[in-house]
Amino acid sequence: MTPTLAQITKELLKSYNRFPRKRLGQHFLVDPGVLKRIINAAQLTKDDLVIEIGSGLGVVTSELAKHVYHLIAIEVDNELLQISKDVLSSFSNITFVPKDILKVTLSELSLGRPYKVISNLPYYISAPIIEKILTAADKPELAVLMLQKEVAERMAASPGSKKYGSFSIFVQYYAEVALNSLVSKSSFHPWPEVGSAVVVLRPHKTPKYKVKDEKLFFDIVHAAFQQRRKKIRNPLAKFKLEDCGIDLNKRPEELSIADFAQLASGD
Ligand code: SAH
Predict the structure, then answer these.
(1) Is any ligand 1 atom within 6 A of the Cβ of residue 104?
(2) Contact 178, 199 (CB under 8 A)
(3) Which of 44, 132, 152, 182 could form a disulfide with 67 if both were Cys (CB 3.0 to 4.6 A apart)?
(4) What is the pTM of this model?
(5) Residue whose CA lies nearest to ligand 1 atom number 5
(6) The pLDDT of residue 100
């Protein structure tokens, strides 16, 4: 019988005498159905360059690498990277990068070529990684990300929903967001403490919203959501936004991103 992903993962850890490091968000994906969903969502082709963030033991990496032209695996835990090099020794299309994703720029990995990002994210830094992807000078064509269900829901939330807030606006300002699927704790080894979800981000090729001053725009969004149950009039008073055509008696969750863009641009 072919071993399951869970068996392969546990055997690898045992034979290298390693335990998952929770501090580094090490929860290995062991569910082949979920892996398939990720691969389908990424629409991989033989022309693709993929950057995999947090490649871990290389079990997911090996499935991805079969479908693409080249894969760049970045992993901060050197021991895991060594294990994955053994696991993936038969592949000639993988570059291993022993670095912290937050300390590199994506374009120094992609070298200006079009690329996709795929990651079962380390959850403790999912927000800064998403920020890095979305504000990169060279953004990926798409990113397929596994992250906490709660964070995924906030990213995809629309106005009027309880989860809609400044993070929804930040993400949707830069990208189309699609919640692909929910993933249960039992799809990982070891189980994470929270439920998970797969999200697909497609960065806008040209800016979707007309915003003259992005800093002002995000400052206004943050200030408005400081008190999400209250009218925006008071928290936004300091910005002196008068004739902007937006009703200042509304609550922040009632405003679309275009409304906030209008507030920030005054036209
Ligand atoms: N891709 C593997 C592992 C996912 S767990 C799988 O799906 O099974 C998240 C991985 O991110 C871990 O291997 C962890 O070591 C790695 N990681 C944590 N912080 C990182 C950072 N700052 N930069 C790069 N990788 C990181």
Answers:
(1) no
(2) yes
(3) 44
(4) 0.96
(5) 26
(6) 98
Tell me, what's the pLDDT at 240? Answer: 80
100 touches ligand 1 (CB under 6 Å): yes
Query: Cis peptide before 207, with omega less than 30 degrees from 0?
Result: no
Residue 117's nearest CA partner among 61, 166, 59, 53 is 53
Residues 190 and 221 in one domain: no
Q: Would you say residue 171 has pLDDT above 80?
A: yes
Q: For the packed helices 166-174 and 257-265, what is the interaxial angle rounded to 10 degrees?
A: 90
Mean pLDDT, the chain, rounded, equals: 96
- Length of the chain measured in residues: 267
Domain with 222 in it: what CATH number?
A: 1.10.8.100
- Return the best residue to mutate from 23, 24, 189 for the ligand 1 pocket (most ligand atoms within 8 A of CB): 24
User: Which residue is closest in CA terms to ligand 1's atom 16?
Assistant: 54
How much distance in Å is there from the Cα of 28 to the middle of ligand 1?
9
- Residues 250 and 153 grouped into a single domain: no
pLDDT tens digits, 126-158: 999 999 999 999 999 999 999 999 999 999 999
Q: Within a domain: residue 209?
A: no
Which of 76, 88, 185 best tests ligand 1's pocket when mutated (most atoms within 8 Å of CB)? 76
